[in-house]
Amino acid sequence: QVLLVESGGGLVKPGGSLRLSCATSGFSFNDVPMAWYCQVPGKERELVAYIGREDFSIVEKESAKGRFTISRDNAKSTLYLQMNNLRPEDTAVYYCNVLRRFGYTTFNWGQGTQVTVSS
Hints:
This protein is mainly β. Strands 2-10-9-4-5-6 form a six-stranded mixed β-sheet, with no helix packed on it. A four-stranded antiparallel β-sheet has the order 1-3-8-7, with no helix packed on it. The radius of gyration is 13 Å and the shape is globular. The model has no long low-confidence stretch (mean pLDDT 96).
């Protein structure tokens, strides 16, 4: 059974930082590219950043470039998202999953972790 368990979200003031974690199990984490996605009510879930099997990473969401960093610990089957200099527009539910590209498909989604940036 595949499990994706996101954590680390919360309420933070603008300019603050958060580190999201995604603990995984039930599949070969080392063998797939992983990604963070975000979703706000009424909008499609969108790709924030992804990382390949060998740590090659891309922050795809334009507004997150220069502020967010994705990383992975293959020994722990865990994905991370370091979020710095947070802005109110970063407010969303953040999910981790397999990168839905290059022939890969996502697993069932976890519960996500809510990030709220507000003063």
